[in-house]
Design goal:
Blueprint (H helix, E strand, L loop, with lengths): L8 H12 L5 H6 L5 H15 L6 H4 L13 H28 L5 H13 L7 H14 L4 H8 L3 H6 L13 H11 L7 H10 L3 E3 L5 E3 L9 E3 L2 E3 L3 H10 L1 H15 L6 H13 L4 H10 L16 H12 L2 E2 L1 H10 L25 H5 L1 H6 L3 E4 L12 E6 L14 H12 L5 H10 L7 H9 L9
Antiparallel strand pairs: 1-2, 3-4, 5-7, 6-7
Helix pairs in contact: 3-6, 5-17, 7-8, 10-11, 13-14, 20-21, 20-22, 21-22
Length: 467
């Protein structure tokens, strides 16, 4: 059996940015070719930590939308205007996040961690200001302390409302948040009892908020009585419950299994995960340290972990956006998210989005394979409002644009077949059998957009769905 040669640094860099970021733009692809992996790792973590101190500011984000004008309006008209305005603002929050994911000025690692934690703490958020509040929790703590993040998300009003904790009151406990905290956010199924859920729910009684997104502790609705939780007895509140959960090593193991599946491989290597979990627990849930261990390890770059992950729809949109400098408006971005089945701040349920092959279905496969062609064959979309008057509906038009010359610097001045080879390397599609096929269909293209046409054909191949 022929021994596999180790990956060269640039191939490792491409893999790193596919998993720790959202791929490389053509400019990044060219500028990083001679860099070392160590240099890229240092830069990734430095930028991620630096930008974690910069929250998204609502006033700046929404400044381009006109303020509400209620003069001479009837109550129904005001309500309808509020709904329209909220939809516009939610679309703007989503679009702004896509720009952060794909703009080289921002930290790709920070945005990737935000997307991971957004899926982990899956929460439908329909109010734009609450969506920003939640995203800022992930921006601040996504590479910081999981302990701090868990305490903050437990007081996040968007999360509390989504899981009905405003209904959780002394004498009438609502178990939704306590159940999901144990099952989905920390310990996982089988590591807690129904008694723990009931005690946890009582501990979170009185935790609520207002519609401005401000956390409120309602003292009169809080159950101060003795509770038995995870074998401990006391007059616990929500903070106590979080701390007890974090004392359990199974929490670190559950989180590391999920992180490994997302960033490394859906096929879990139990020994590696156990080692990561031991470090994570001993470091008091230091996320930055954990991710450094993963991305610095030799096994992260083994062939078995390369191109084994199916791109999520947001990954697919992001990599195409970086490649051809796509520009969306809020309507068109929402339409594309719906078309390939992942809408930011709108997970299918509290368990979040799938990973791996579950992203591919008979209903979305054609749309995924044809996405690059679809996006580059038009500059506007006409929407028919078939959804009714809800927060996911849209009507009118949405605008899309792209840069025809974005890829021209890759393989510039070379023979056409050399340009295709360069496009395949950029798109991380390795197949000599495809060279003639792409060349046959692209050869009639004018010299000026040959690179773009080749990339569109390459990105329509099944292999491009992997990262």
């Amino acid at each position: 059996m022929k021994e596999q040669l180790p990956l060269k640094d640039f191939k490792k860099i491409q893999h790193l940015y596919a998993r720790a970021g959202f791929g490389l733009s053509p400019q990044e692809y060219l500028s990083k070719k001679n860099n070392s992996l160590d240099r890229e790792l240092k830069e990734l973590f430095f930028e991620g930590e630096r930008q974690s101190k910069t929250p998204i500011k609502q006033d700046e984000l929404f400044s381009q939308i006109s303020s509400l004008k209620y003069s001479s309006m009837k109550k129904k008209e005001r309500r309808n205007l509020n709904q329209v305005e909220a939809r516009k603002r939610m679309n703007l929050v989503r679009l702004n996040w896509l720009k952060r994911m794909t703009n080289g000025i921002n930290s790709p690692l920070q945005e990737r961690m935000c997307l991971f934690w957004h899926g982990h703490f899956a929460c439908y958020v329909g109010k734009p200001h609450m969506a920003i509040n939640q995203l800022n929790i992930f921006r601040k703590n996504g590479l910081g302390s999981f302990r701090d993040m868990l305490h903050e998300i437990s007081k996040d009003v968007g999360m509390l409302f989504y899981l009905n904790n405003q209904q959780n009151k002394k004498g009438r406990p609502n178990e939704n948040y306590a159940r999901e905290l144990l099952e989905l956010f920390t310990l996982g199924k089988g590591n807690y009892s129904e008694t723990d859920i009931k005690a946890g729910a009582r501990a979170f009684t009185g935790w609520t908020g207002d519609f401005n997104g401000t956390y409120i502790f309602e003292k009169k609705n809080h159950d101060r009585g003795a509770k038995v939780f995870m074998g401990k007895r006391g007059g616990f509140n929500g903070n106590d419950i979080v701390n007890i959960i974090l004392e359990d090593k199974r929490t670190a193991l559950f989180l590391c299994e999920k992180i490994y599946a997302y960033f490394v491989n859906v096929k879990i290597d139990k020994n590696r995960v156990i080692g990561l979990a031991e470090y994570f627990y001993k470091s008091d849930y230091n996320i930055k340290g954990l991710m450094k261990k993963i991305f610095s390890s030799d096994w992260f770059y083994e062939k078995a972990n390369i191109k084994t992950k199916v791109k999520s729809p947001i990954d697919l949109i992001s990599t195409l956006t970086k490649a051809i400098d796509l520009k969306f408006d809020g309507n068109s971005f929402l339409f594309i998210q719906k078309r390939i089945d992942q809408i930011l701040f709108h997970p299918p349920n509290v368990a979040g989005w799938p990973i791996g092959k579950e992203w591919i279905s008979s209903s979305n496969l054609y749309s995924r394979l044809q996405l690059s062609h679809f996006l580059t064959s038009r500059n506007s979309l006409a929407f028919e409002n078939e959804e009714g008057n809800d927060e996911m509906s849209f009507n009118g038009q949405g605008n899309i644009s792209f840069n025809k010359r974005s890829l021209s610097s890759i393989g510039s001045g070379e023979r056409k077949k050399d340009i295709i080879i360069a496009m395949m390397d950029y798109a991380r599609v390795d197949s000599n059998n495809l060279l003639e096929e792409v060349y046959k269909h692209s050869n009639k293209t004018s010299e000026g957009i040959f690179a773009l046409d080749s990339f569109i054909r390459i990105s329509s191949l099944p292999e491009y769905q992997l990262c």
